[in-house]
Specification:
about 15% strand; Isopropylmalate Dehydrogenase; globular
Length: about 325
């Protein structure tokens, strides 16, 4: 039996160990009959799959045992030099060797970026890869990059991110002429530092459908399809979004439990609250692509549980 899509997985890269990765992978396989998996893991994770899912590994899962894994506290340069046979390195190599169509890992972001860049090489004309993800908006989703691959960027880096986001939005968002914006502290032309001003001037005179600057509180308005920023700003913004979603969820729960009246009222609002909770759950938007590489590499959140890793897949 042939399968259209083959995904390579790092079983042992995340903070929570291999259990949520395995559970998410099996759940994903059950609902995607056109997918098969290459699972790179340490002996314990491989043994767990063999014991727990003996009837599910013959046809659609290939298990590859590795002798080491990249840890969260490993320096990227050390991971590159000393862990050439790690679960992460071998998973990335599977893309290079055309054994898989994509690689998914919850592991060390810096190591994932460095190993991927060295093994897969950058697309011609691109200086640095960027991390991009899709976020929900008021009307339609939008793309945001960079989310942490590059803490410092030149104006040329931002321009390249905008161009990559433009192409990706045409495909993922099915936008014929995506609207691109630079994230800034204000929409006025004189706002921001020199790097973002230089990038803005060039984008304004390019073929890209450039909106201009957008502030963080307007990202979800539906005005733009792609939000571009440096990795430091993007990572802080993304984690602020995740934290705010958790705060709103806690507020709602506290209010509903604060009195008998609200507890009674919650019975009638459960369907709405359940839908809202699902819509706001950051785990369901987990999974960011390292764009700019000659291959598909997906970064899952380091603390992803089963729901989060499944979303990345």
């Amino acid at each position: 039996m042939t399968h259209q899509i083959k995904i390579a997985i790092d079983l042992d890269g995340g903070d929570l160990g291999f259990e949520p990765v395995i559970a998410a992978s099996m759940s994903f396989l059950s609902s995607h009959p056109d997918v098969s998996l290459l699972c790179y893991g340490l002996s314990e994770s491989i043994e767990t799959i063999n014991k727990r899912y003996p009837n599910k590994i013959v046809d659609r899962i290939e298990l590859i045992e590795c002798d080491e894994a990249v840890r969260m506290d490993d320096k990227p340069s050390d991971a590159l030099r000393r862990k050439k046979t790690s679960t992460m390195a071998r998973g990335i190599d599977s893309i290079k060797e055309k054994k898989a169509h994509a690689f998914v890992s919850s592991g060390n972001t810096g190591a994932l970026m460095l190993l991927s860049s060295v093994a897969l090489k950058l697309i011609e004309g691109i200086e640095r890869p960027a991390i991009v993800t899709m976020l929900p908006g008021k009307k339609t989703p939008f793309l945001m990059l960079d989310l942490g691959a590059n803490t410092e960027c030149t104006s040329e880096n931002l321009i390249q991110f905008a161009k990559m986001g433009n192409f990706l939005a045409r495909d993922l968002l099915e936008k014929e002429n995506p609207v691109i914006a630079l994230l800034n502290i204000g929409e006025e032309h004189h706002k921001g530092h020199s790097t973002i001003k230089d990038a803005s001037e060039i984008l304004r005179n390019s073929e890209i459908n450039y909106y201009g600057y957008i502030e963080a509180n307007q990202m979800f308005s539906g005005r733009v399809d792609v939000v571009v920023c440096d990795g430091f700003t993007g990572n802080v913004a993304l984690k602020s979004i995740e934290g705010t979603a958790g705060l709103i969820k806690a507020f709602i729960q506290n209010i509903l439990m604060s009195s008998l009246f609200y507890k009674f009222l919650s019975i009638f609002t459960l369907p709405v609250l359940a839908a809202l909770r699902k819509k706001m759950d950051p785990r369901r938007y987990n999974g960011a692509m390292l764009i700019g590489l000659n291959g598909i590499v997906i970064k899952s959140h380091g603390s992803s549980d089963e729901i989060g890793f499944r979303a990345a897949l």
